[in-house]
Amino acid sequence: MKEFPNFLQFQDELELLFFYNNKIQGEIPTWFWNNTNENIREVQLGNYFLTGFEQHPDVIPWRSLLILDLSFNRLQGSLPIPPLSTIVYEATGNSLSGEIPPSIICHNSSLKFLDLSNNNLGGTIPQCLPSFSDSLLVVNPSHNNFHGTIPDMTGINLKMIDLSQNQLHGLVPRSLENCTMLEILLLGNNQMEGTFPSWLGALPKLQVLILRSNRFHGAINVSQAKLKFAKLRIIDLSNNGFSGNLPSEYFENWNAMTMVKREKLTYMQASQGVPIGIVNSRSTALTLYTRPYVYSVTMDNKGTHTVYAKIQTAFIAIDLSNNKFGGEIPESLGRLNGLQMLNLSNNSLTGVIPSSLANLTELESLDLSQNLLSGEIPQQLSQLTFLEFLNVSHYCLFFVKKIKKTDQARPIA
Length: 413
Fold this sequence. Notes:
By secondary structure, this protein is mainly beta.
């Protein structure tokens, strides 16, 4: 299809409308929004070719709407405001601009998933967010132009917060420690400041923490015994100003990184039951089905900037590159035998490569380049059968040839 079919103007009992992956082009016609259908519950218009609205609907009039998905088009203009019944609102991958109307969050106690990522939105994050965040499970306004500080968030049901790729500054709000259901926190590529927020370690379900490319600084200390990041599996602190020794005490307690579950291929996601079904004069039966929201993350892996559109629950990674860490690589890193990616490059680490890294039997990528390490490359690393990427460039290492006993160790780059 290349245009909206006219017969939709006369469908007064329509409940579900799916237009994914068609070739409908141009503007959404005015009659589409003005349809007086009271039954419509789910509308999905993702197809890459819609450019805007023939007449912009300030507020979408469908009072029973539960799911609105406008993702991956070329929509311009301001955000349309969904009705108060909306549970899922996704508009990622467009060219929408302006600020987030406060009423989208502040007056909608039904909203569970809000994804406005990859647009041209700006202004500040609505300060009313904490007042209604108890209903929200996912908040994703990443890859926009938001500025200012992050408002206090106290949502006890929040599972994912993605504020990455904006212009936010200031400290990580301490109110996040109230978000006890939080599984993934993405704050990368902003202008956040302060020292490492170790208090996040008390969050019992936090699995992914991305603070890359900000202005954090100072040593990473463990101030309280209980703050151990018990469920953490992915952490990226790269491109900051962290200093001091590597956090060996954390390595000794990140037990979730010691669990290997390659045989079970599942993906991280949040789910919400959505009532979709027949509603008319003859029947009011509703069918409850599960609406998943699949988490995604961006990291540098094997020397490449990689977008993980889906995060495998088996993926375990540490990236502490491009900081000011010094001292030796602690032996305790070797206990994290579920690690698939380890990047400690571009620091000031000294000493030798510990042989305990040979215990990382799941390791696929190891980058120790641009440090001050010396000595031999441990022969035990040859036991890492999954290792595809190894970078030990730009420091003074030595290897020993065993063909002749008279051979001396020679430096390699």
